[in-house]
Amino acid sequence: MRTPDSTTAAAILPLVGGPANVLTVAHCMTRLRLGLRDRGLVDEEGLRALPAVLGLVADGGSYQIVLGPGTVARVTPAFESLLAAAGPGLGPAATAEPSGPLPASSTAPPARHGVEPAAAADRSFPPGARPGAPTSPAVPPGAGPGDTAGLLGARGAELKAARARRNATPLKLFLRRIADVFVPLIPALIGCGVIAGLNGVLVNLGVLTGLTPALTAVAAGFMALIAVFVGHNTAKVFGGTPVLGGAVAAVVVYAGVAKVTVLGVTLAPGQGGVLGALAAALLGTYVEKWCRSWVPPTLDVLVTPTLTVLLTGLVTLYALMYTAGRLSAAIGTSATWLLSTTGAFAGLVLGALFLPLVMLGLHQALIPVHATLIEQQGYTVLLPVLAMAGAGQVGAALAVYVRLRHDTSLRTTIRSALPAGLLGVGEPLIYGVSLPLGRPFVTACAGGAAGGAFIGFFSMLGDRVGSTAIGPSGLALFPLLSGNRSLAVTAAIYAGGLLTGYAVGFAATWFLGLGGLPPQGPDGGLDRAADGAPPARPAEQTAA
């Protein structure tokens, strides 16, 4: 039976340090994102024990609790209500989405329960550890020699902290803010995408002909104005006035731009798409900040908005729309050419590298590309290929589950994380199983490569598989599938890719991914005595 959302919220709040420790609240498709005053007050073991919690991610300035799609959208308002009820001096002024970088105070001292901050202290090498090998955190409280899941969880926490340190570069922080522009749009993209898919089925069947024009209007309305929403969110994320960002981005989709000629070329409404809107709103934010730096306060309310819209609007018309239009066209042409010409190879490379890109924080650069393809072609052909990385992850986890059949703690972790993994929420499997073990992460990438190559091969044959929205993955992507063939053919190709990813991820992990692990001991855990090593050093246990 599903835990009530109010109960989940009430259980989470004290485990993150109570209302006084919460600075900001936001959520994306799967995660409750909290800005905390002191991460040392977080009880990670308690959070992991909650039935609704699928995983934990300490990334940059936010502490993220993975609850899964749907659940997070219901738990967040309940969590915000608890904060509001705690009193006016406690908790944040909660926002539905992140509006910029979190305060510096949210970068907190070391957590007591395994989540380490970016500035963790250096440790000396434990006896017998290899020079240059990653050091390990202390064994979690209550984790005995047979508690492999607890040891791997501690190892996963260290790897997440290391990833946060690597990802705190100016480029990756900028890409993260770009992602924050598009993440709030995902629910609308999904809803409109599902309606568009349903409408396509009705049109192909020739039924309910009086209803299909209305469904077309409902599904297409958001996409017709997506540039305005992108502009609004861009200004919000980068510190400008959101409505001014929407105003300058609206120039891109205004029908009257068809009367404007640039370099002998007449502009078309929507030219430049989301990239043009993003650039326009970003420029408008900097123009607004520049105006506020010198305009007298008495004239600010009149002069600053006027100059921001005027100057940015003219630059958008005479430079950004033309340039972004050429760039958007090149993205669409390149994606189509890549999969139609080198489909199998391109799919193999994309499927294999997507998980490492996630670890490096570079996958966020793909979000504007997806949005551009959806705006141009009605679907993105890249997302189904990249979704194969999750299939490889599921196959690898299943192999670990079957192979280490006596390790009850690890099998319990996998059982709890597999449903989310099948639906495209991969963090619990990545940080709880494959990445701490080492080799299974690599063999999971091999499964993703095989699934991507499968879909890419059919693209070479002219059967394109796309998604009308971004966000969902795995089995959850089926309602959003689209392409240049019938829905049945498109779904069959995607299903074949998933099955290929599952199978290759399983086989690669079974034969190659677990060979570096020591045999299991009588208690079901990994037997370090067989190697003559101390029994409870997670980094040595998981070294592959």
Please tell me about this protein's structure.
The chain has helices at residues 5-15, 44-49, 71-85, 148-166, 170-182, 186-205, 212-224, 226-237, 242-253, 273-294, 297-360, 367-377, 382-386, 388-403, 408-422, 427-437, 439-460, 487-513, 538-541, and strands at residues 22-27, 31-36, 55-59, 62-66, 261-262, 265-266, 465-467, 481-483. It has 3 domains: 5-85, Glucose permease domain IIB (Gyrase A, domain 2); 181-335, no CATH class; 348-513, no CATH class. It is mainly alpha-helical. Helix content is 58%, strand content 6%. Mean pLDDT is 79; it is low at 93-145 and 527-544. The radius of gyration is 25 Å and the shape is globular. The strands form 3 sheets. The chain has a 4-stranded antiparallel sheet with strand order 1-2-4-3. Strands 5-6 form a two-stranded antiparallel sheet.
Low-confidence stretches: 93-145, 527-544
Average residue pLDDT = 79
Number of domains: 3
Q: Give me the Rg, rounded.
A: 25 Å
Note the beta-strand portion. 5-15%
Largest sheet: 4 strands, antiparallel
- The helix-strand sequence is HEEHEEHHHHHHHEEHHHHHHHHEEHH
Give the end-to-end Cα distance, rounded to a whole number of Å. Answer: 39 Å
Arrangement of strands in the largest sheet: 1-2-4-3
How many separate helices? Answer: 19
Overall shape: it is: globular
Please estimate the helix content: 55-70%
Query: How many strands appear in the DSSP assignment?
Result: 8
**Structural class by SSE content:** mainly alpha
